[in-house]
Automatic annotation (TrEMBL), chain A:
The lineage of its organism: Bacteria, Bacillati, Actinomycetota, Actinomycetes, Micromonosporales. Gene3D superfamilies: 1.10.1740.10, Winged helix-like DNA-binding domain superfamily/Winged helix DNA-binding domain. One of its GO terms (molecular function) is sigma factor activity. InterPro entries: RNA_pol_sigma-70-like, RNA_pol_sigma-70_dom, RNA_pol_sigma70_r2, RNA_pol_sigma70_r4_t2, RNA_pol_sigma_r2, RNA_pol_sigma_r3/r4-like, WH-like_DNA-bd_sf. SUPFAM superfamilies: Sigma2 domain of RNA polymerase sigma factors, Sigma3 and sigma4 domains of RNA polymerase sigma factors. Keywords: Sigma factor, Transcription, Transcription regulation. This is RNA polymerase sigma24 factor. Residues 29-92 form the RNA polymerase sigma-70 region domain.
UniProtKB/TrEMBL annotation, chain B:
It comes from Actinoplanes utahensis. This is Putative zinc-finger domain-containing protein. Keywords: Membrane, Transcription, Transcription regulation, Transmembrane, Transmembrane helix. The keyword Transcription applies. Residues 10-38 form the Putative zinc-finger domain. The chain crosses the membrane at residues 92-112, 118-142, 163-184, 190-210, 242-268.
From TrEMBL, chain C:
Keywords: ATP-binding, Nucleotide-binding, Transport. CDD domains: ABC_drug_resistance_like. The keyword Coiled coil does not apply. Pfam families: ABC_tran. Residues 4-235 form the ABC transporter domain. It comes from Actinoplanes utahensis. This is ABC transporter ATP-binding protein. Belongs to the ABC transporter superfamily. Transmembrane segments: none annotated. The keyword ATP-binding applies. InterPro entries: AAA+_ATPase, ABC_transporter-like_ATP-bd, ABC_transporter-like_CS, P-loop_NTPase. It comes from the Bacteria.
Length: 184, 279, 285
């Protein structure tokens, strides 16, 4: 295993982490913690919970980096999926769980994630989807965001937003119908 | 992807939360796929290193083993547990050896329990069990058992308190193992406890003697004296009464008294455990 | 400011004299203890580190007396000590080892202890090796780990016995930078038999031989001891036992001037060798 540096790719860093190099974990953390933080803070107002979710993420990466090799996912997308799930599990219990969650939150593949790219291809920036999303009511839009952009399951999305799973299901259905109407 | 990138103005609006929801979503979707745009997010270095240090500690800090968790449940503070579990004598090799010897003794005693061999084995267990903790204590402190004794011995925690903490930790482990073996052993019920007071005497005696001699020498001296004494007793008295002489009520009282005397010597001379004190 | 005062300190092992009435005063800054093997350097350092009780004489550190148990514990709170053979537990990881020593140094608060372990690891540049077990560290890294444990708790007096042994040139540079930084506010006392170390980082130097202090002063004054006694000649000097050929092909000798020799500027090493030669003669008498 060659030594890692600032120039190493994310995938190389993850391989080095799987081989037990903490220097690689530090480089990966310093490279990704910033944008993960910015993105998580838009989903949770408590900075302590966000910080803990980021710490949790990299501890999980340390334990499970070897599982990354089995996926074909993009490293950044993989990290995001872990981070947002850590945030969900931190918000789940009455007391925030601290660096102790099961490794089950680490996805074996990032199947749900490409939908974010689909969103872009659909033309959020320039096409008709953007205005349509803006006209959606906030509670419906946040569900679309949690499932399509963040790659969460409906249950996780419900936990993130603090609503019952059944409510989330019906709202998601309503959101899709509404979007279809707006885009028609 | 495409040629579109997030410029500084857009990024600023995103970070301040001023963007329309759909534009914020577009920024995030793009960021996930675009390393240069990800790294253009400003990060406060103090926050970054602070956040990292928690990850670092979690990855490196000593993992709590089963013994550690048990002691924590007993209410012992974290730093005391570190002291107890890092006692040099508590190595896996020592634990494995002790468990093997005791396990073989119990197994053999059960196999031979009908014949005379079983009785001999049970008797030798009684005689050898008190020596086990002493052997353990001999490696608890100071040269040569503790290779780091010069560093350990010049910290503010050095001295009698540290010796006793370490002795307690090894004696505790050795006694638990021997007691388990004693209970599993076939034979009269009192066999399981008869060795406890001699063990106590030998341990306190070893520590008391260690205020004048090196710990391993003190342990060897007392362990040897005990074995020689028991051997002599077996020559003088024949048959079953031999056990009641060595382990009977009178003898047990004697052990207790001697242990108390040894403890008194230990307390009076405890300062001698300090490297910096003249002998 | 004087941190350590030693007067008439003596220590015997059986009939061997390790220290014979040592008098010394050491203050803030880096002090180098120079001397051949068996000169008594380690014995003196062990006495100061409270690892050994002297037979006679007195020591005062921060105004405290190491012979008094309560004072001794207080002294131990304020010193860091790297023994010649640290005996770091081979099965511990670098982090575990420092965490353990930090507990012994009474840093009982877990959060504070972790921050301190992280700090000293960074000081000796072992941050990325924290997970490695001691037995898998190279000799130089082990030596740095030994230094790191001495720095735990930010001691006022740092005692280092042969800290530069086994270091490659790069690590030696790291060591010197670190030690000279320490010496800005603290008292650092280190032993060595490398005169280069003394010239590179010590403000004061103490030369020991045969259990006695034979020189105490600035490194430049140590070089001055050999002033007018170092010679360069084109041919090997006759009648001199100790000479060597330098890179320019000239013969360098210390002592009386050989025929046709020119005086050379003495270095620390020359002064040191002069002193050792002289005391060797005195001891023989």
């Amino acid at each position: 295993m060659p030594p890692v540096s600032e120039q190493s790719s994310d995938a190389d860093l993850l391989r080095a982490i799987a081989a037990g190099q903490t220097a690689a974990l530090r480089l990966l953390h310093h490279r990704h913690a910033g944008w993960l933080r910015a993105r998580l803070r838009r989903r949770c107002a408590d900075p302590d919970v966000v910080d803990a979710a980021i710490q949790d993420t990299f501890v999980a990466v340390w334990k499970d980096a070897h599982r990354f090799a089995e996926t074909t996912a993009d490293p950044a997308a993989w990290l995001w999926t872990i981070a947002v799930r850590r945030l969900v599990s931190a918000l789940r219990g009455p007391a925030h769980r601290w660096l102790s969650g099961p490794a089950a939150d680490v996805p074996d593949d990032a199947r749900t994630v490409p939908s974010a790219e689909e969103l872009v291809l659909l033309g959020v920036e320039h096409g008709a989807l953007g205005p349509a999303l803006d006209r959606l009511s906030p509670e419906l839009r946040r569900l679309i965001e949690a499932t399509a952009l963040d790659g969460l399951t409906v249950r996780e999305a419900a936990q993130l937003l603090g609503i019952p799973e059944g409510t989330a299901k019906t709202r998601l259905m309503r959101a899709r119908t509404r979007l279809r109407q707006l885009l028609a | 992807m495409n040629d579109w990138h997030i410029d500084a103005g857009l990024l600023g609006e995103y970070e301040r939360g001023e963007l329309d929801p759909s534009r914020a979503m577009a920024v995030e979707a793009h960021m996930q796929a675009c390393p240069p745009c990800r790294s253009s997010i400003r990060v406060d270095f103090t926050w970054l290193t602070g956040n990292w240090s928690v990850v670092y500690d979690h990855v490196h800090a000593p993992k709590a083993g089963p013994g550690h968790r048990l002691l924590r449940r007993l209410g012992l503070p974290e730093h005391r547990i570190r002291l107890l579990t890092a006692t040099p004598a508590l190595r896996w090799s020592w634990l494995a050896a002790t468990v093997t010897v005791l396990g073989l003794a119990v197994a053999a005693a059960w196999l031979l329990r009908s014949g005379a061999g079983g009785a001999v084995l049970a008797t030798s267990f009684l005689i050898l069990a008190p020596v086990l903790p002493v052997v353990a204590v001999s490696g608890a402190y100071g040269p040569p058992a503790d290779p780091m004794h010069e560093i350990t011995g010049t910290t503010p925690s050095a001295g009698p308190a540290l010796v006793l903490w370490r002795a307690i930790s090894v004696i505790g482990v050795a006694m638990t193992m021997a007691a388990t073996a004693g209970v599993l052993l076939p034979g009269p019920g009192w066999f399981a406890v008869a060795w406890l007071l001699p063990a106590l005497l030998l341990c306190t005696g070893t520590l008391a003697l260690a205020t004048a001699l090196a710990l391993p020498v003190a342990a060897a001296t007392l362990g040897g004296l005990w074995l020689a004494g028991v051997l002599a007793a077996s020559r003088l008295v024949h048959g079953e009464p031999f056990l009641s002489v060595v382990f009977g009520p009178t003898a047990q009282l004697g052990y207790l008294a001697a242990a108390v005397a040894a403890a008194a010597v230990l307390i009076l001379r405890r300062r001698r455990f300090d490297l910096g004190a003249s002998r | 400011m004087t941190t350590v005062t030693v007067s008439g300190l003596a220590k015997h092992y059986g009939s061997t004299t390790a220290l014979a009435a040592v008098d010394l005063a050491i203050g803030v800054g880096v002090t180098g203890l120079l001397g051949p093997n068996g000169a008594g350097k380690s014995t003196l350092l062990r006495c100061l580190a409270t690892a050994l009780a002297a037979d006679s004489g007195s020591v005062r550190m921060f105004g405290l007396d190491p012979a008094v148990p309560a004072d001794r514990t207080e002294i131990r709170r304020r010193i860091g000590y790297l023994p010649q053979n640290p005996g770091l537990y081979p099965n511990f990881t670098a982090y575990d080892l420092l965490d353990y020593v930090a507990v012994l140094k009474e840093i009982t608060d877990t959060r504070q202890r972790r921050a301190e372990v992280r700090r000293v690891l960074a000081e000796v540049e072992l941050t990325d090796r924290a997970q490695t077990r001691v037995r898998r560290l190279s000799g130089g890294m082990r030596q740095r780990l030994g230094l790191a444990q001495a720095l735990l708790g930010d001691p006022d007096l740092v005692i280092l016995d042969e800290p530069t042994v086994g270091l490659d040139p790069e690590q030696r540079m790291l060591f010197r930078a670190l030690i000279s930084r320490l010496g800005e506010q603290r008292t650092v006392l280190l032993s060595t038999h490398q005169t280069e170390d003394v010239g590179a980082l010590c403000e004061r130097v103490v030369v020991m031989n045969g259990g006695r202090v034979v020189f105490e002063g600035r490194p430049r004054d140590l070089a001055g001891v050999a002033e007018g006694r170092v010679w360069l000649s084109a041919a090997p000097p006759e009648g001199s036992a100790a000479y060597w050929r330098n890179a320019d092909g000239l013969y360098r000798t210390i002592g009386d001037a050989p025929a046709g020799a020119e005086a050379a500027r003495p270095g620390i090493e020359d002064g040191y060798l002069m002193l050792l030669g002289r005391t060797a003669v005195e001891v023989a008498r």
